[in-house]
Write a structure and sequence with these properties.
Length: 314
C-alpha cells in the first residue's frame, strides 16, 4: 500500500501542498487530477523522495520515505513529468545502465532490460540513440526504466503527455495490464484518461484534496446529471409544456432553423431513474412525436471545473 500522511510543501512562504492524505492499495489505479499548478507533481516528488516535504510523510509498503528511503524507493517505479533519459545513449544502453543502478548484473541485468523493452514496444528502436527518437518513443523509454525492476508500486506523472492517439492507447493498455497486480498512482489532467483507466479519482485544487470518489459518482455531482434533452417533431402544445414543467425546470433550446422541430432541456428537481419513460408517456398522450431523447449521465469535466475554479473567479 502507498500511504500519504498529511503531506505539505511550502515554497518561499507559499503553501503548494496543504496536508493531504490518501492511500493506494495493490490492484488499484488511482487517478490524481488537478489543474496546472494544483500541486500534483510536487506531491508525486515528495512521495518518491525526490523532494523533501515541509511536513508529513509517505509510506511505501510499510517503509517511510523519510526514515527508510532506500527500502521505500526500491519498491517504487517512477515516471516523472519530464521523462529524464541520457540522450547520447542507445535505448538498450540506457536500460542496461538503469538495471545496474537497480542492482541487476549479468544475465539478470540483460533479462530485466529486454523484458522492459518488450513490454513497452521498444524492440524496433533498441540500438537507436535516444536523442533521435520521437517524444512518444522517449516517453516509452522512460516508462521502461520505471518498470524494469518489476516494482509493486508505480508513480506515473502525465504518462501519456505529448503522445498521439495510437501511442496513448498502447500506454493505457500497459497500465491496465499492470494495474491488476500493482498499486498505481497516475497524475493527469486528461479526464477521459481517468475514466478509461481509473476506478477511483482524487481531485486536488490549490494544494488541497477537494474530491475522492469513483468517476461515476463524481459525474453525479454535475447539475445536469439525469437531465433530459428532448427533440420533438413539432412545437409542443401548452398543455404538454405545463405537464413537463411538473417534472422539473424546462428550458427551450434553439432548434435548427430549417426544421419544424422543437428542442427542450428538462432538469428534474431530483434524480428520477424513470424520467425518460415519464416524458415519453406525456408526449404520447398529447399526440406529440419524439425525434430524439437523451438522458445526461453527467460530465466529469463539468464537475472538475466546479471543484477547481476559485470561488471568486469571474
Amino acid at each position: 500500500m502507498i500511504e500519504v500522511k498529511d503531506l505539505s510543501k511550502d515554497f518561499n512562504g507559499k503553501r503548494a501542498v496543504d496536508a493531504i492524505s490518501f492511500t493506494v492499495d495493490k490492484g488499484e489505479i488511482l487517478g490524481f487530477l488537478g489543474p496546472n499548478g494544483a500541486g500534483k507533481s510536487t506531491t508525486m516528488r515528495m512521495i518518491t523522495g525526490y523532494l523533501p516535504p515541509s511536513s508529513g510523510t509517505a509510506v511505501i509498503d510499510g517503509f517511510d520515505i523519510l526514515t527508510q528511503p532506500i527500502e521505500a524507493r526500491a519498491r517504487l517505479g517512477y515516471l516523472s513529468e519530464t521523462a529524464p533519459v541520457y540522450p547520447e545513449m542507445s535505448v538498450r544502453e540506457f536500460l542496461l545502465f538503469c538495471a545496474e543502478v537497480r542492482g541487476f548484473s549479468g544475465k539478470n541485468r540483460d533479462r530485466a532490460a529486454d523484458d522492459a523493452m518488450d513490454r513497452c514496444f521498444l524492440k524496433n528502436v533498441v540500438h537507436q540513440p535516444i536523442h533521435t527518437l520521437s517524444k512518444g518513443y522517449r516517453q516509452r523509454v522512460s516508462f521502461a526504466q520505471s518498470i524494469l525492476h518489476d516494482p509493486a508500486y508505480l508513480i506515473l506523472d502525465e504518462p501519456t503527455d505529448g503522445l498521439d492517439p495510437n501511442q496513448k492507447h498502447e500506454v493505457r493498455q500497459m497500465i491496465q495490464a499492470m494495474g491488476e497486480a500493482k498499486a498505481i498512482l497516475i497524475s493527469t489532467h486528461i479526464l477521459d484518461e481517468v475514466e478509461a483507466l481509473c476506478p477511483r479519482a482524487l481531485i486536488i485544487s490549490e494544494g488541497r484534496i477537494v474530491a475522492d470518489d469513483s468517476p461515476e459518482k463524481l459525474r453525479r455531482q454535475d447539475p445536469d446529471y439525469g437531465a433530459c434533452t428532448l427533440t420533438l417533431n413539432n412545437p409542443p402544445p401548452a398543455g404538454l409544456m405545463q405537464e413537463l414543467s411538473s417534472l422539473g425546470e424546462v428550458r427551450k433550446e434553439h432548434p435548427d432553423r430549417d426544421t419544424n422541430t422543437a428542442k427542450l432541456h428538462i432538469r428534474p428537481r431530483q434524480y428520477q431513474p424513470d424520467l425518460s419513460s415519464q416524458i415519453e408517456g406525456l408526449c404520447r398522450r398529447s399526440g406529440t412525436g419524439i425525434n430524439e431523447l437523451f438522458i445526461s449521465q453527467g460530465r466529469l469535466d463539468t464537475v472538475f471545473r466546479m471543484l477547481t475554479t476559485p470561488k471568486n473567479a469571474a
